[in-house]
TrEMBL record:
Record-linked Gene3D superfamilies: Multidrug efflux transporter AcrB transmembrane domain
Gene: Ptchd3
Location of this chain's protein in the cell: Membrane
Keywords: Glycoprotein, Membrane, Transmembrane, Transmembrane helix
UniProt membrane topology term: Multi-pass membrane protein
Occurrences of domain SSD (ranges): 1-140
Protein name: PTHD3 protein
Record keyword tRNA-binding present: no
Family stated for the protein in its record: Belongs to the patched family.
InterPro entries: Patched_domain-protein, PTHD_SSD, SSD
Transmembrane helix in keyword set: yes
Organism name: Sagittarius serpentarius
Assigned GO CC terms: membrane
Matching PROSITE patterns: SSD
Amino acid sequence: RLSCIRNNVWLACCGVVSAGLAVLSSFGLMLFCGVPFVVTVANAPFLILGVGVDDMFIMIASWEQSSRKKEKSDVKCLLAETYGEAALSVTITTLTDVLAFFIGTWTAFPSVRSFCLYTGTAFVFCYMYTMTFFGAIIVLNHKREQGNRHWLTCMPVGVGENQAEKSCWYNACCIGNCSRQSSQLETKQPESEHPMSIFFKKYYGPFFTNKWIKLLVVLLYGAYLGGSIYGCTQIREGIDLRNLASDDSYVIPYYDDDDKYLSAYGPRVMVVITERVDYWNETVRLGIENCTQNLE
């Protein structure tokens, strides 16, 4: 918003901080429990940030609708109605994400198992912080607006200030604007409905409630469901190393020839020495050589 009072920049920043706290809590708990940290886990913060910001938007939208419907600014009633509207959708989305990643811990790949453990736990913490920390931030931001305070400095806007004697920067940060016009009664004005809400209410909703459109949606969903079931029957666990190389790489014909001519011999067998060995000692080297010959 362009309003120096209704601008919610700090609220959005705190929503991102909430997702960051979830990542820190998850990583700290998993490392404390001894779960190995692999490279793929480094991608988890981006997933948590996406879900955390989505939950933040749902909470803010529910708060705005509740405050627009209620004439009284009772914080308890507004917050209760906000949680009543937003908590269900946030809970369902979090539950499905957590189940999906915890099911992924059943895989045979240790790296994928670690990634799913870290990410699934982070989703749980993200839900907890959204329902507690971010809800408190919304209330504090509401009190700031009710106190007619600036979004950046939290100083009272246009109260007892001789704006003509102040600089433009001071008026912008502490009074509200550079034009030396007071914004003292800004929070008293009713706020208009968001253009996106108007679009979904007047155009998007009536379009999809048409009976022919609903029939088309059902048919499309049936085709999507059939394709998904077919895809589940074709999926295989594992990785094809050809997909990791570029199309013109020499690796691709190498693996093609390996499968064509050498696949009947089975996988390569490797011997790993797990103890500390004095390789400089000739007797030790001869022992390793004899062990290799016996295995062959």
